[in-house]
Each structure stands twice: as structure tokens, then as C-alpha cells.
Amino acid sequence: MRIPLWHTATRVSRALLRVLLPLRCLVCNDDGHDGLDLCAACYAELPWAGRACLRCALPLPDNALIVCGTCREEVPPQAATHASLLYLPPVDQLLVRYKFHQDLAAGRLLAQLMQRAPPPWSCAPLVPVPLHNRRVRQRGYNQAAELCRLLPMPVWQGLYRRRHTAPQSERSAEQRRDNLFDAFATRGSAPVRLTLVDDVMTTGSTVMEIAETLRLVGTEEVRVWVCARVP
Ligand SMILES: [Zn+2]
Ligand SMILES: [Zn+2]
Predict the structure, then answer these.
(1) Are 21 and 46 in contact (CB under 8 A)?
(2) Is 45 helix (H, G, I), strand (E, B) or coil?
């Protein structure tokens, strides 16, 4: 495979920039620390996810069971969900900058933070939650696919979104699931085990719809790894 010259040039100039430019905290603009674009003080304040439901990653009190009441009542199709962080400041602002304002440095930082709090299970191969091509063209990239690219694990590319769906925000959990019905499909044979990766998990309707789709095409175990869980 030939790598275009501009691509090599971009990589070289990026590497050079990292040597020349010191790390900068993306939250408060102070000096970066420990190889991250985050200062020691902001790092110490990060909302790491603590004890949570094994199935849906919803935060749980210390004395609770390992699965939340909702997941006990209706067992979700994914075998497990792991969130590295909670969707609280400053992670929420970093995710918004990454997703809606083309701040790829914020994306790189978030992927580094995910690696510092990985799932307790082996996660390869990864599969990103897909965006419809129309959305990728609008945004310029798929934020979940970029996170996968920055994580040091193999990625399966066989999942895609077959129809464009209206944005999920401001919909109830039930409306979200109706909106997504039959929205995803696969090409090629699906691996037996997969870890679905997304930036944020709110109600879980997207990952549940995808987990069901993957199970129908032969994936026996779908697990989920998100950067941040909305508590
Ligand atoms: Zn800072
Ligand atoms: Zn749960």
C-alpha cells in the first residue's frame, strides 16, 4: 500500500509540533503534565467512573448489587458496559469540543484517558458506533471511529448505519429506540466477541440496538466501552 506524501508530511509535522510545542492543559491552559494536554490540578479533579452496574455502567452506591434494578428487570443485550469517566465537568466540555467543534486535541486527550481506565476484561477487537455517511460529511469525522483509531487495539470495520436518523437528544428512551429501529447493519462475517466503542452513553438505546443487531449476525458476546457515562 502506498502512503500519500501529504499524509507522511502531516504525520512528521505533527510529531515535530509535539516536540516543539509544550503540552498545554486543554481545560485551564496551564502546563500539561505526565504526557497529557492536562495539568496536574485538572487531572486530579477528573470525574473517573467509580462503582457501577456491570451491564449498563450506571453509577451505583458502594453497598448495592453489581447489577442495577433496571438491568435486573430487563436484561440488556450487551454482556457488560464499562465507562472510563462520568459525563461531568470538565469531561463534558471536552467531549462537546471534540464532537461538535472539530477539537481533535480534545479527542486525543479523551482517548488517552480511556486508556488509563480501561475495562477489566480483554476488549479486542473494537468496533465504533457508526455514523451515517451524511453525518460524517457534515462533521468531517466519526468521533467514535477516531477514538478507536487512537486506542492500541485492532478495530473491526464491518458495522455501518444504513439509514440516517434524527438526532437522539430531547427524545425519551422509548422514542430513541423507535428512532433507531433497523438503523444498523453489518458486512462480512462478524467476530464472535466484540467491544462496541462510543464517546458518550446516555440512555444506552444506541448500544442496545447495535448489540441486538450484532447478536443476530452471530456475535455471541457484545461488550461496550464508552469514554463517559451520563450519570
Ligand atoms: Zn488545567
Ligand atoms: Zn444497569
Answers:
(1) no
(2) coil
CA-wise closest residue to 191 among 164, 156, 231, 226: 156
What are residue 226's phi and psi, to 5 degrees?
-115, 155
Report how far ligand 2's centroid is from the alpha carbon of 67 (Å): 5
Residue 66 CA: which ligand is closest? 2
pLDDT digits 0-9 by tens, 78-108: 999 999 999 999 999 999 999 999 999 999 9
Grouping H, G, I as helix, E, B as strand and the rest as coil, residue 139 is: helix
C-alpha cell at 35: 504526557
What is the grid cell recorded at 188? 462480512
Cis geometry, peptide bond prior to residue 90 (ω within 30 degrees of 0): yes
CATH T-level fold of 48-229: Rossmann fold (3.40.50)
Distance 106 CA to ligand 1 centre (A): 13
**Which ligand neighbours the alpha carbon of 89 most closely?**
1
Q: Enumerate the domain spans of the chain.
A: 48-229
> E strand or H helix at 56, and its extent?
none
pLDDT in tens, 185-213: 999 999 999 999 999 999 999 999 999 99
